[in-house]
Amino acid sequence: MQDTYRLQKELKQRNIKMLADEQDEFITYYKILCWGYQERFGLTRDVMRIEISLRLTKYTNELGGILKGHLMG
Question: Distance (Å, rounded) from C-alpha 61 to C-alpha 65?
Fold first, then answer.
């Protein structure tokens, strides 16, 4: 949640809007609006799965370190 909030805040500060556009079987497209320009950006499901897996691993490791620190106290 904090990563998402931080990203949304940064995009807003830079006056960049990201809107969901289309979705097909394997790709999710977004419209990127910045300084009067519009670009279409697509992410494949495989890329999203890998990114989610990497972030979950990172969060799990961070949580494990916090819990270990509290238990070792």
Answer: 6
3-state helix, strand, coil in the chain (%, to 5): 55, 35, 10
User: Is there a contact between 30 and 21 (Cβ–Cβ < 8 Å)?
Assistant: yes
Strands 16-23 and 27-34, by their bridges, are antiparallel
What does the DSSP 8-state code read for residue 26?
S
Q: What is the pLDDT along the chain (73 residues), one digit of tens a residue?
A: 888 899 999 999 999 999 999 998 899 999 999 999 999 999 999 999 999 999 999 999 999 999 988 888 6
Beta bridge partner(s), residue 73: none
d(CA 38, CA 46): 25
Task: Please state whether the predicted TM-score (pTM) of the whole model is above 0.70.
Answer: no
